């Protein structure tokens, strides 16, 4: 399911949300040119590597494609164990820095699109400063849960999805009556359906939980930090629940559909 938009326009300009998106885009630009030069230092130093955090004094290696000359003098690509370059600060800080890195354009666009849809409304209810602190804390918590799920992993972890999962957890509590326009592919056709936000978000969380459980019991993780998503979502929901109990959120906004009219269902041919 691909979210397209929600039913609630924000009352204020989501300055922090825009800055977070801009920061991630700029950092990815730095990553692109860094990797184009063949160094990849930004990913190596700023990503969160569980083994490096839990054992900061032990060198960590990873498999990487390197160019060497064969016996005939021709350059070839071979896979070798290469030591990871340590960050210029304590590896514990990478629990924060990794949430501004991404593994590719698709990874970046998917995360930023979700942040664009859900983040503005959460910032509207929490306020700018509180939203920024909330986002960073959710990102750190997500990194920490992933770290605990695989303490000795040498695989670099990057992505804002854990922090964004926290935003989605907050959205679930703040806007349970909202609807999310969702694109659902069916083979060559695609259906756009208005789904209540509570169902959309609970289904998404359930998918993360099932996938995370399968990966923890020996299944393939598929390169996805499922437990970071789970930890971020749970953290975001818990913090938001506390904010609601302490009356630290801005007044509610109308979470009903625009003009009380249901969305149209539209079908698109994708072939």
Furnish the topology, listing elements before pairings:
Layout: E1 2-6, H1 15-36, H2 41-46, H3 50-54, E2 61-69, E3 75-83, H4 94-97, H5 105-126, H6 128-149, H7 161-174, E4 179-186, E5 189-196, H8 197-216, H9 226-245, E6 266-269
Antiparallel strand pairs: 1-4, 2-3, 4-5, 5-6
Please describe what this structure looks like:
Helix 6 crosses helix 7 and helix 8 packs across helix 9 (226-245). It contains nine helices and six strands, in the order βαααββααααββααβ. It is an alpha+beta fold and 271 residues long. It is globular and about 70 Å long. The strands form two sheets. The protein has a four-stranded antiparallel beta sheet. Strands 2-3 form a two-stranded antiparallel ribbon. The protein has helices at residues 15-36, 41-46, 50-54, 94-97, 105-126, 128-149, 161-174, 197-216, 226-245, and strands at residues 2-6, 61-69, 75-83, 179-186, 189-196, 266-269. Mean pLDDT is 86; it is low at 256-271. The longest helix has 22 residues, at 15-36. The chain has one domain (2-59, 86-217, 228-269): Rhomboid-like (Rhomboid-like fold), CATH 1.20.1540.10. A hairpin with a 5-residue loop joins strand 2 and strand 3 (75-83).
């Amino acid at each position: 399911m691909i979210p397209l938009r929600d039913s609630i326009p924000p009352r204020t300009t989501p300055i922090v949300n825009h800055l977070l998106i801009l920061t991630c885009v700029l950092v990815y630009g730095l990553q692109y040119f860094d990797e184009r030069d063949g160094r990849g230092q930004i990913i190596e130093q700023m990503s969160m590597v569980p083994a490096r955090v839990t054992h900061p004094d032990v060198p960590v290696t990873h498999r990487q494609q390197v160019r060497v000359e064969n016996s005939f003098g021709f350059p070839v690509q071979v896979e070798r164990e290469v030591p990871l370059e340590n960050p210029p600060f304590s590896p514990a800080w990478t629990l924060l820095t990794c949430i501004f890195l991404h593994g590719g354009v698709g990874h970046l666009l998917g995360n930023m699109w979700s942040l664009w849809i859900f983040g503005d409304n959460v910032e509207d209810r929490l306020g700018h400063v509180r939203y920024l602190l909330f986002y960073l804390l959710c990102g750190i918590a997500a990194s920490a849960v992933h770290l605990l799920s695989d303490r000795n992993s040498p695989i670099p972890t990057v992505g804002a999805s854990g922090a964004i999962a926290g935003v989605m957890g907050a959205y679930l509590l703040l806007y349970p009556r909202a609807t999310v326009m969702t694109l659902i592919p069916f083979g060559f056709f695609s259906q756009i359906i208005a789904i209540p936000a509570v169902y959309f978000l609970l289904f998404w969380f359930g998918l993360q939980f099932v996938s995370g459980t399968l990966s923890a019991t020996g299944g393939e993780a598929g390169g996805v930090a499922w437990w970071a998503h789970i930890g971020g979502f749970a953290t975001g929901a818990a913090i938001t629940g506390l904010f609601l109990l302490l009356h630290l959120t801005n007044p509610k906004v109308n979470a009903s559909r625009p003009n009380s009219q249901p969305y149209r269902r539209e079908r698109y041919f994708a072939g």
